[in-house]
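Hey L., structure's done. Input below.
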Amino acid sequence: MIRRIPENQFAKVRLIPQKGLSEWLANVKTLKMILFRTAADFRSWLLKCRNQGIKTGFVPTMGALHDGHMQLIRACRSTADICICSIFINPTQFNDSRDFEKYPVTLENDIEMLEKAGSDVIFLPGVAEIYPDGEKGLEIYDLGNLENVLEGQFRPGHFQGVCQVMSRLLGIIDPDHLFMGQKDYQQCLVIKRLIHILGLPVHFHTIPTIREADGLAQSSRNRRLTPDQRKNATAISRALNEIQVNLAPGSPEPLLKNALKTLERAHFKTDYVSISKADDLQPIQIWDGKEKAVALIAAFQGDIRLIDNILLN
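Output:
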């Protein structure tokens, strides 16, 4: 049976103060959603939950939330007793500073969406809370070939930044369950490896991609597209669907060429189109008709980089 924090119809999002935490903790069951800014306050609250045998689920985000994130919240709510969501735009995973500066910040809307979706807790740290000793000289993780292919090749250092922030968030939140979206397929594989490296007893859940009615994968970057770019963007999902429908044993090269043409007609500048092994993303040269495979695309519409993928079998 799922045990939840009872909701009070008059409750609003509560900012946990730096002082008087014990009084707030005493009244925690009357709150609808709680917002923490510091790890110390969150951990004090979490200890009380742990002492009651409550199981926690965690959804890490960088804000600019959409229905895809809400699907993660729903999956978390259906699995764990308490759903915890973080909002933190991590500076160490942006290999392009312009991309970091342009990342949308929609905090008020994010909080409202999380409250409606039923998140129990928001963790909203600042950079100094996550990186108290600064962002230089951070640890490096052995991610194997995942760091050298596809996103790893075109965004050098990106996955190190992802692991640096996730190792800290997982250390603070210590969840029983972790939920991430399939749209970031390679990132999911990287985080699974990180969990193995750190030896964490957390159950990892990959949640299927949520799409718009025309097939475009939901993404925080979509809101930056112009109307014409938004129309063009659907070519990514069309190209992936064409690969899935036409995949047959043998060389996938003709499928890759056709996908590139589909993207070019929609004015995309393509980083990669790949048909890869689902477990390690090594490119498939000859498909035997049985091996688990995934098709992945990354391409620019104007200066906006979009990614998507589809499991092929």
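The CA atoms of residues 268 and 301 lie 5 Å apart. The first strand starts at residue 13 and ends at 15.

-- N.
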